Amino acid sequence: MDDIVEWVRSDGLTPYPDAVEAMHRRIARIAAGEATECIWLVEHPPIYTAGVSARPYDLTDPNRFPVYKSERGGQYTYHGPGQRVAYPMLDLRRRNRDVRMFVRDIETWIITTLASFNVRGEMREGRVGVWVNRSRPGSAPQEDKIAAIGIRIRQWISFHGLAINVEPDLAHFAGIVPCGISAPDLGVTSLADLGLRISMSEFDDALRDAFERTFDRHTKVRHSSSRFLAS
Predict the structure, then answer these.
(1) Any residues with CB less than 8 A from the CB of 33 and at least 6 apart, and which?
(2) Which parts of the chain fold into alpha helices (H)?
């Protein structure tokens, strides 16, 4: 296949099990050389997902939303309307077979996207994801997570991905210990919580531009009005 990364944006709310099934089909075709790499942009109905490292006691309100076990890395996280979920299905055989570097590139991609809205996202050693320093002079330290990352690699093809809080209901995070982090000085935030009202379309444009700058690849954009990724 040529050096094209296809972008697909699904309208509406995509059920999580159907998204996972669609990703499985696509990465199998990428691995076989039958499909291009792909970035799939979705929003999910309100759900919790449990990564491979999830601890049962971090699900504090199991009856609040549907809970799905996930093969991605990480612990519990929330997905819902107003949160941009991006599933990068990329062929690391053609890039760099270094999973740690790939995760760092994902973090850089998110940070570059946030910078276009004058938000300073930061990495933290030992805490996967992207954080915003909310500390104020004379007050207690406070850092809030604005983006979560949970990747899976199969046959050197990535899937699952990242979730960036654009304008979700942050109260929905109360049913879990997000990513297993319960320290009182660590919370969650969103662009809306930071005072920025940004449309999902505007955010997607910034996300695509930052991807091109981070991964240095040509992209082909396909906007989809369907709920699912075509195989």
Answers:
(1) 1
(2) 16-31, 99-115, 200-215
Rg, the chain, Cα only: 17
Residue 218 has pLDDT above 70, yes or no: no
- Residue 90 DSSP one-character state: -
| Cβ contact 143:186 at 8 Å | yes
Mean pLDDT of the chain: 91
Q: Within its chain, how far is the Cα of 105 from the centroid?
A: 13
Active site residues: 179
Pairing between strand 4-10 and 218-224? Answer: parallel
* DSSP character at residue 162: E
**What gap in Å lies between CA 164 and CA 119, rounded to an integer?**
13
pLDDT at 3: 75
Return the residue matching tokens 């107003």.
Answer: 82
User: What share of the chain has pLDDT > 70, as a percent?
Assistant: 94
Q: b or e along 73-84 (b: 16 or more beta carbons within 10 Å of the residue's beta carbon)?
A: bbbbbbbbbbbb
Give the global pTM: 0.93
Which phi and psi angles does 150 have, rounded to 5°?
-145, 105
| pLDDT tens digits, 70-112 | 999 889 999 999 999 999 999 999 888 899 999 999 999 999 9
Handedness of CA 206, 211, 213, 217 (dihedral sign): negative
